[in-house]
Amino acid sequence: MTGNHKLLFATSNIGKFEEAVNVLEEYGLAIEMVRIKRFEVQSDDLVEIAKISALFALEEVKNPVIVEDAGLFIEALNLFPGPYSSYVYKTIGLDGILKLMENVKNRRAYFMSAIAYCWSESEVKIFEGRVDGTITHEKRGERGFGFDPIFCPREGDGRTFAEMSTEEKSMISHRGKSFRKLATWLK
Ligand code: ITT
Question: Which of 44, 69, 95, 132 is catalytic?
């Protein structure tokens, strides 16, 4: 689909990019990071945000391109911060979320990843991934990025994503799942 060109990934988040590289290299696929100004989309829907952002990115780079929108959805907070995760991370941060979760018994949460791959104005393909887990009571671990120190995946061994290597996280993460779907489709 991409000919001899490397697949372009429009993102400003190096953590996301490294995870994507890690998954795609298992399939012999290479990607390149392009930083473009993200089009600010107002929507409650990750898929919609990814789609519109990918069309915008295509306009900019004039080559097939992927965009990924991801978010953390916390059950007890009515799925907040969801599509607003980036803003919430930058404003109230991990401590703010832990504070909102003080004395909250239901700690269930999930991460979602929606990749939009766009190669023409009328052609956008979506790949989604989800991982379920719980919000911890304290921050643990130094690796990863974003909300990783307070998210403990259900399929794991009790460690947070921030206590895992990139490889371990990608085996079970929302992004690992969505990128493996993309890779399978591209192959
Ligand atoms: P781009 O839009 O430039 O790709 P971003 O960081 O703004 O980068 P998103 O809007 O998709 O990306 O992600 C929203 C936020 O959700 C992100 O900044 C993190 O704080 C959080 N997040 C997403 N995936 C995560 C993950 O795997 N681990 C921890 N936090 C994550």
Answer: 69
Segment (H or E) for 80: strand 80-81
Q: Encode pLDDT of 43-85 as tens digits.
A: 889 999 999 999 999 999 999 999 999 999 999 999 999 999 9
- Please give the structure tokens belonging to residue 147: 């909300």
Q: Tokens 């018994």 — which residue?
A: 105
Q: How far is residue 111's CA from residue 81's CA, in Å, rounded to a whole number?
A: 10
User: Are residues 30 and 179 in contact, defined by beta-carbon separation less than 8 angstroms?
Assistant: no
Ligand 1 centroid from CA 27, angstroms: 24
Q: Which atom of ligand 1 is nearest to the CA of 174?
A: 27
* Residue 137 dihedral angles phi and psi, to the nearest 5°: -90, -15
Do the Cβ atoms of 81 and 74 come closer than 8 Å? yes
The full set of domains in the chain, from first to last, is 7-186 (3.90.950.10)
69 catalytic residue (yes or no): yes
- Entry field: residues in the chain: 187
Spans in the chain with pLDDT lower than 70: 1-5, 40
pLDDT at 2: 44
Q: Which residues contact 8 (CB under 8 A, 6 or more apart)?
A: 31, 32, 34, 57, 61, 63, 64, 65, 66
Residue 111 pairs in a beta bridge with 72, 131
